[in-house]
Structure formats: C-alpha cells, structure tokens
Amino acid sequence: MKEAAAIISADPLADGLDEAQGLEPPAESRRAIVEAGLHGQRLDRALVVLVPEFSRSYLQQLIDTDAVQLNGHPARKSASKVRAGDTVHIELRPTLQSQAFVAQPMDLRVVHEDEFLRVIDKPAGLVVHPAPGNWSGTLLNGLLALDASAAMLPRAGIVHRLDKDTSGLMVVARTRAAMDALVGLIARREVSRQYLALAHRPWSGPRTRTIEAPVGRDPRNRLRMAVVDLARDAGKTARTDIECLAQADAGCWLRCSLHTGRTHQIRVHAASIGHPLVGDTLYGGTLAAGLARQALHAFRLALRHPMTGADLDLRSPLPEDMREALAQWGVDYNA
C-alpha cells in the first residue's frame, strides 16, 4: 500500500450483464481516503496514486464521464484539488478507447494467406485502425477476430494503411518476424503499390507524368495535407507516377504508382496537377458519376515474400461503384 493512500474497499459491482441486449461489461467500484501526502494535489494526480494500475489519461476519462465522486458529489474537473480526509469513489468503467482492441467478426476478403502474412482486399468505408470517432468496427477489430494470435502483434500486424474510403489491397503480418521484415521492405521501397483513380478534367500533356513534390501538413488547414516547400514547412519528399489510361469529357481514368507512402499522397499529387479525384471533397473534388466516396482503388500489390522469398503479385477487381462511375462517364475499363 502506498503511504499516501488507504484503500478501504474494492468490490466488483453485480454483473447484471445481458449480452442479448448488448450491455457493457461490469465495472469495478473503488473507494479511498486521501491521506496527508496528497493534500492539495490535483484530482487526476491523486487518482494515479490511489489506483496506480491505471493510466492518468484513462482516469481523466473517468472524471469526464462522471465516474468519479469526491465526498459523495461528482468530480467534474481533473484539476480539482483534493484535501486530506476526502473520500474518493471511483467506478472503473470500460471506455470506448479501452474497448477498441477487441475482436469483432466481419466479412473480410482474404486474397492470399500463409503462416507469415495475409493480403486483405479492404472495402471502401472500412477504417483501418481505431482512432477517435472510430473506436470499433475497424479492420484491426476484424483481424483480431480472424486470428486471435494477432493480439500479440503491434497494431494486429498492420504495417501500412489505406484511407477509410479507399478500397483495395493491404498486406498484414501474422508473426513478429514477418512484421519487422515487411516494415523493412516498405521502408526500402521494395513493395510495389498501384492504384486506379477517376479524376476530374480531361488529361493534357504526356500520357505519363512523374510528380516529385514534398507532402506535409497543410500550414493553412491542419486537417489536410498539401504539397509544401521544405524550406518553410515540415514535410517529406514524395514521388508518384501517374498514367492516363483513358479519358472522357468530364475527366480521366488514371493508374498511379507509389514510390513513397506519404499520407494522402496520391490525392494530394493528383490535385496539385489539376486533377482532383472524383468524390475527394477534401482536396477539391466533387461527388460525381454516382460515387459517394473518393474514386481510388489499390488494385495491385507486388513484393518478394519477406520469409519465403517467393514473388507475390496480387490484383483486386475494380469495385462495382467505380465500374458504374466509369460507365456513366463512358470510359472503357481495361483491366
């Protein structure tokens, strides 16, 4: 027992868990007396001493959700000061964040699987990793349901990401050795990733263009990325090859090859040359051709298997919504 705190009781609440109704799992109730050594401390700092097995950020979440009482009254501020002799009651509830890394069965299309890795064909609309606003229903949750051993790996073996509304191929590790090797392959640019995209405005100039332009956080809007000047703004070098496969009066059908993997790289580079992607409202595109999301699909993934040395060259068929968009614009799709 820590000198500054005296735990009076620790008794689990009656479970009352009704799984059929989807109620939350049981919480645990703690009571403690603030001793002299904590007199005048912030409440959140005092709680770290009173219940040391939990993080300060988690305890702050409990305060924000009225799960902490000070002398019988809800404690609504982490910065509230405690006094010697105060009674603290804490209900250790599961938070959205604490429940993020749980298995959730979902229908995932696996296009390659062996003992070391999987390649997933991600549908549009699926978030890859839990984050504020999307603590559940992510690809990570689905991977944990697909393979319980994924819980032993950082991020359940995810080594790269696709945006929520981008569809297509992603490689996921199944062992720590494979994960480390895949991270190395990506860092050395030995994984080939190609995308298909539908963009606004007819193409002009050479059929293939190479865009070498640094990408970083937009200094005027921190919620998006932009082509930046590294002499003034933070960013990283980025290179994308963009080839026009076909076009119509309203826009063009593109194949994009990544040489680097910066956040939103294809979307930013395409917009920077006057061809924002259809549906990509963040970077100047508009909803068109019946699409309700950005028209970007990771159709090809090629790499040398990091453990066996075998060559993998995998393709994903174009999703139906993008096929229908091409048909609306009268663009022939050549696989």
Structural class: alpha+beta
The amount of helix comes to: 10-25%
Low-confidence stretches: 1-25
Rounded to an integer in angstroms, the radius of gyration calculated over CA atoms is 25 Å
Compute the average pLDDT: 89
Report the span from N to C terminus: 67 Å
Shape: elongated
Number of helical regions: 6
Please provide the count of β strands: 16
Give the strand content.
25-35%
**Strand/helix succession:** EEHHEEEEEHEHEEEEEEHEEH
Largest sheet: 9 strands, mixed
Model description:
With 335 residues, the chain is α+β, with helices and mostly antiparallel strands. Helices cover 16% and strands 28% of the residues. It contains 6 helices and 16 strands. The strands form 3 sheets. Strands 6, 7, 8, 9, 10, 13, 14, 15 and 16 form a 9-stranded mixed beta sheet that branches. A 5-stranded antiparallel beta sheet has the order 1-2-5-3-4. A two-stranded antiparallel sheet has the order 11-12. Helix 1 (43-50) packs across helix 2 (56-64).
Task: Outline the secondary-structure elements.
Layout (H helix, E strand, L loop, with lengths): L4 E8 L15 E7 L8 H8 L5 H9 L3 E3 L2 E2 L12 E6 L16 E5 L3 E6 L16 H8 L20 E7 L2 H12 L4 E9 L7 E5 L2 E3 L7 E3 L11 E9 L3 E8 L6 H8 L23 E9 L6 E5 L4 H10 L6
Parallel strand pairs: 8-15
Antiparallel strand pairs: 1-2, 2-5, 3-4, 3-5, 6-7, 7-8, 9-14, 9-15, 10-13, 11-12, 13-14, 15-16
